[in-house]
Model the fold of this input.
Amino acid sequence: DNRFKWWIDILLTVNHSDSKVLIKGTLIDCKRGQSIRSLESWAKDWNVSKGAVRDFFKLLQSDQMLYTESLKFTTRITVCKYEDYQTENKPIQNNILNIKRIKLDLNKVS
Done:
């Protein structure tokens, strides 16, 4: 099952600071913990169908781990509680425990 790898990829891909993304001539705000990418882009990176990405995002959204927004030409994802996954001012053990909990949660739905 690749869902844990995909989740880690999301955590590593989302913005670490606020920025703007230019999509087809339109500037879109992309805050810390967010990513502006099409479902097709995620699918290509993970070598799966767009439907598999959509289903995975729905799974994460149902567990309040991720929020998705459909935008014109793209999708904005927001990692819920993004700060919980960051080591700044927190012992690394807390982050490892969070990641292990998520791995267990994702394995439950297999």
The chain has a mean pLDDT of 84. The longest strand covers residues 66-71. The first helix runs from residue 3 to 13. Helices lie at 3-13, 39-46, 50-62, 92-108.
